[in-house]
TrEMBL record:
GO molecular function: rRNA binding; structural constituent of ribosome
Any single GO BP term: translation
NCBIfam families in alphabetical order: rplD_bact
Family, as annotated: Belongs to the universal ribosomal protein uL4 family.
Keyword set, alphabetical order: Ribonucleoprotein, Ribosomal protein, RNA-binding, rRNA-binding
GO CC field: ribonucleoprotein complex; ribosome
Summary of the function given for this chain in its UniProt record: Forms part of the polypeptide exit tunnel. One of the primary rRNA binding proteins, this protein initially binds near the 5'-end of the 23S rRNA. It is important during the early stages of 50S assembly. It makes multiple contacts with different domains of the 23S rRNA in the assembled 50S subunit and ribosome.
Region feature Disordered, mapped onto this chain: 44-77
Name the record gives this protein: Large ribosomal subunit protein uL4
UniProt cross-references to SUPFAM superfamilies, sorted A to Z: Ribosomal protein L4
Gene (name only): rplD
Subunit relationships: Part of the 50S ribosomal subunit.
Taxonomic superkingdom: Bacteria
InterPro entries named among the record's database cross-references: Ribosomal_uL4, Ribosomal_uL4-like, Ribosomal_uL4_dom_sf
Amino acid sequence: MELSILKHTGEDTGRKVSLSDAIFDIEPNDHAIYLDVKQKMANARQGTHKSKERAEISGSTRKIKKQKGTGTARAGSIKSPIFKGGGRVFGPRPKDYSFKLNKKLKAVARKSALTYKAKDQMISVLEGFTFNEVKTKNYTDMLNKLSLDSKKTLLVLPEVDKNIVLSGRNIKNTQVTTVDSLNTYDVLHADQLLFVEGSLEKIENLFK
C-alpha cells in the first residue's frame, strides 16, 4: 500500500511511501488482539479494593442476647454480617490482576491492529517535523490543517520529541507516543494514526 507523505501543515510533499505488507497487510488475528488488550487493561487495574470482614471491624464481642427462649435465631456478636454495621461476608481483597503474554503474540496483535487501520484507510504519514517551542496552539493548528480536529488521533514518533509531546498532552482525544511504546489498545482506540516518516523504518525493524 502506498501513501502520500504530508507536511504537518497539511500540504502534500509530492512523495509517496510504501507500507510494509509484513506489518500492515497480514491476516489479522482477532484473538491475539483480544488477549493483548485484555492484558493492558488488566495490568492497569490497581487491585486495591478491600472491605472489612467480621474479624476486622471494631465492636463489642459480648453476646447480644441469651442463646434460647427469644423465639429468634441465636446471635453471638454485633459484628455478625447479618447485623447493620457488621462485617462483610467474603468481601473483596487486594488482588494482582496482571498477567504475562508471549512477545510474539503481542507482536501479532499489534500488526493485526495496524492491518485493520490500513484497510480502513485510517493511516497518514507525515514528513519529519518539530515545534520550536512547547505550545498547545502549535499542535491544534496542525490538527486543523490536517482536518483531524474532530477525530481521535495517535501520533507515532520515531523517538521522543519533548516539544511535540508536551504540546499535545492536554488536547482532548489526542495522544502522542513513540514506536517503542506503541500498543494494540492505543492503535484500536484512535480514529486516525499519524506516522512520522522516520517511524515507519523503525517499526519495520521492530517487527523483524
